[in-house]
Amino acid sequence: MPTASSDRIRHVQLSSVVLPLEQPISDAKVLTGRQKPMTEIVLLFAEIRTEQDRHGIGFSYSKRAGGPAQYAHAKEIAGNLIGADPSDIAKIYDQLLWAGASVGRSGVATQAIAALDIALWDLKAKRADLPLAKLLGAHRDSVRAYNTSGGFLHAPLDEVKERATKSLADGIGGIKIKVGQPDTREDLRRVRAVREHLGADVPLMVDANQQWDRPTALRVGRALEEFDLVWIEEPLDAYDAEGHAHLAEQLDTPIATGEMLGSVTEHVRLIEARAADIIQPDAPRIGGITPFLRLATLADHHGLQLAPHFAMEIHLHLAATYPREPWVEHFEWLNPLFNERLETLDGRMLVPDRPGLGFTTSEQCRAWTVDAAEFGTA
Ligand SMILES: [Mg+2]
């Protein structure tokens, strides 16, 4: 049979990279004793090369545990890509899912696929010589950006205010701070202080990282109404769709959630329960760009807003394609892994004009590589 295109995948490289964080990070899960402070992020990088020497990179990640498992699963399935047409991403995605069907369609299994899927999309956009957002069809060339990294709970209030001022000066438009401490009065004290520091016009969000129960979330949520927040994030357990739905109905402040979910199917449950006003999928966590695009279509159909979680290097492109004005989360943590930087201006993050995702991995990224595996012909 004649084929519609002749290029084929000839080589896949997987790398496991351990990125140390500058200081241990604590959100509410640490203050309630559920987790230890985070000291590193483990990334799974995939690099795909074709016979015509086209090239794409993608990555997935895990925080605290799961990095070695993502890498191990990717090593088991990556060989399936050799000889495949890299443009047929949906077909390849299906093959990778079936290759790992025994361990399911969510979590670690699909997070391993995510690195490969993202690399395929990067490759496709580079072949078209377009930024990924343009290949997909963008609604905008920049996306409203907010800073999270300055508002964690290990930081004293003065430092949070200082870093918020710096973020705004750097062209980032909104500020998110962490709440969800065992003492809710302390949460309210910090929110009040930051709102007074920023003034009424700066978009401000809070994130409880799932640490309230239903009554606490409602009581604190009501107390937060006066601060005109853009959203309250993860007020409840990530899987409590019914609780989120009740809260969303009771409060004027929009409810945002979804970052912890590991598949589109889990998000569909949230959407069907009307659990959130703003959906926060994470492409590496739900299995890559292919499932993210399917979810985004569904979320728009249900009138939801979008604020993807973490990994701005990927999500900037995806947010740029969403019909409703989205937000993208600014985190500088992954910067050392790449040679390029994203620009922020007048509160927005600019879609880079470089083809694909617009990133190349740095020398530092290679220095932090703890293991690598190759498939096909280099
Ligand atoms: Mg969050």
Automatic annotation (TrEMBL):
Mg(2+) binds at residues 207, 233, 259. GO terms for molecular function: galactarate dehydratase activity; L-altrarate dehydratase activity; magnesium ion binding. SMART domains: MR_MLE (SM00922). Substrate binds at residues 27-29, 63-64, 176, 209, 329. Residues 157-254 form the Mandelate racemase/muconate lactonizing enzyme C-terminal domain. Gene3D superfamilies: Enolase-like C-terminal domain, Enolase-like, N-terminal domain. It comes from the Bacteria. GO terms for biological process: amino acid catabolic process; carbohydrate catabolic process. The keyword Metal-binding applies. Its cofactor is Mg(2+). The record marks 282 as: Increases basicity of active site His. The active site is at 178 (proton acceptor), 309 (proton donor/acceptor). Binds 1 Mg(2+) ion per subunit. Keywords: Magnesium, Metal-binding. This is Galactarate dehydratase /L-talarate dehydratase. It comes from Kribbella amoyensis.
